[in-house]
Write a structure and sequence with these properties.
By secondary structure, the protein is an alpha/beta fold. It contains twelve helices and twelve strands. Helix 11 crosses helix 12. The radius of gyration is 19 Å and the shape is globular. The model has no long low-confidence stretch (mean pLDDT 95).
């Protein structure tokens, strides 16, 4: 496996000098963040990111993400223009040596939590989702943690209204339409597309979710069979869906060669509904057996990119929620141990 670390570019508060000190760290996962969704990324921006990483001995082989414009998801008449721009971005990232692109097809919200600084028993804080708190949210007057600056109230309401007549099948068909045009280019230039699961993996505010479980994945892979049409196996996102068998899914999709990127994190289910909080990476800290998941991956041939996903804020760090340095560095070290043991015991 290749261990990587999310890096938000030259303005990230965590410098590359720190990232490269994490044991076994091969590279960064990044993107161009200053270009509006749907537009073409300047090749100069990609080259600048790659140069910065290479100067510190780090690769830049994974992009997370090239966002998919909402008009593509909704199947609007101008989607072909945005798909053409997306294809150009695929060609440009391939030109600078990128091998894998993580993306998602979630309407409006590509993640949702109800608290950004949930206080854990150990004194750390982390992202969490409370079913009871979610029920209190007025969809007509949305003020969501972490999203207040992403859309204006008018923009949010307009988007939600536009999605009212879009069914799960409509959204799936729009995904297939997108992939049927993008994947042949990926086959040509050697890019693996790795769709990120819904986070959390259920419908929210009446918006359909279509990448939430094993059946959803099988449907997508059958519709667009190329092996470059693959998956970001995010254990925390799939794990929030309590009917998802992560060990089985890891085994199945690793064996099929469909897992191109791996987000490893643990969560703790906190009640009988859909509530959960994000915890340390270790199996004993949460509800997911991380050791069994990694063993299933290794035993079935996974050798792709891995990154420690959301961490807690620990040691007094006041970092970007989910993306501080310390706990993700600890998570990376734990991941190193899991993979080394699994690989030596194949």
């Amino acid at each position: 496996m290749k261990l990587t670390f999310r890096w938000y570019g030259l303005k990230d508060s965590i410098p590359l000098d720190y990232i490269r000190q994490i044991p076994n760290m091969s590279g960064v996962v990044t993107a161009v963040y200053d270009v509006p969704v749907g537009e073409v990324w300047p090749i100069e921006s990609l080259q600048k990111l790659k140069q910065a990483a290479h100067e510190k001995g780090l690769e830049m082989e994974v992009i997370e993400s090239i966002p998919v414009h909402e008009d593509i998801k909704m199947g609007k008449g101008n989607r072909d223009l945005y798909i053409a721009n997306y294809i150009e971005n695929i060609r440009r990232v391939a030109q600078v040596g990128v091998k894998c692109v993580c993306y998602n097809f979630m309407p409006v919200f590509d993640w949702l939590r109800t608290e950004m600084h949930h206080l854990n028993k150990d004194g750390s804080n982390s992202l969490s989702y409370s079913y009871d708190d979610f029920k209190k949210i007025d969809p007509h007057n949305l003020h969501l943690p972490g999203w207040d600056e992403s859309y204006s109230q008018d923009e949010l309401q307009h988007l939600l209204k536009e999605y009212q007549n879009i069914s799960h099948e409509d959204l799936f068909n729009n995904l297939v339409y997108f992939l049927e045009r993008v994947i042949p280019v990926c086959d040509e230039v050697g890019i693996k597309m790795a769709i990120h699961p819904d986070d959390p993996p259920w419908d929210i505010f009446g918006l359909p979710r279509i990448v939430s479980n094993e059946n959803d994945l099988d449907k997508m892979f059958n519709a667009v069979p190329s092996v470059n049409n693959g998956l970001t196996l995010c254990t925390g996102s799939f794990g929030a869906g309590r009917n998802n068998d992560l060990v089985h899914m890891a085994k199945k999709y690793a064996k099929a060669g469909r897992i191109h990127f791996l987000h490893l994190r643990n969560i703790l289910w906190t009640d009988d509904y859909d509530s959960f909080c994000e915890v340390g990476h270790c199996s004993k800290d949460g509800s997911l057996d991380m050791a069994k998941i990694v063993k299933a991956l290794v035993d079935n041939g996974f050798d792709g990119y891995v990154r420690p996903d959301h961490g807690r804020n620990i040691f007094g760090e006041d970092g970007k929620p989910g993306y501080g340095l310390y706990d993700r560095a600890l998570g990376a070290s734990y991941i190193n141990g899991l993979f080394e043991m699994a690989e030596k015991n194949k």
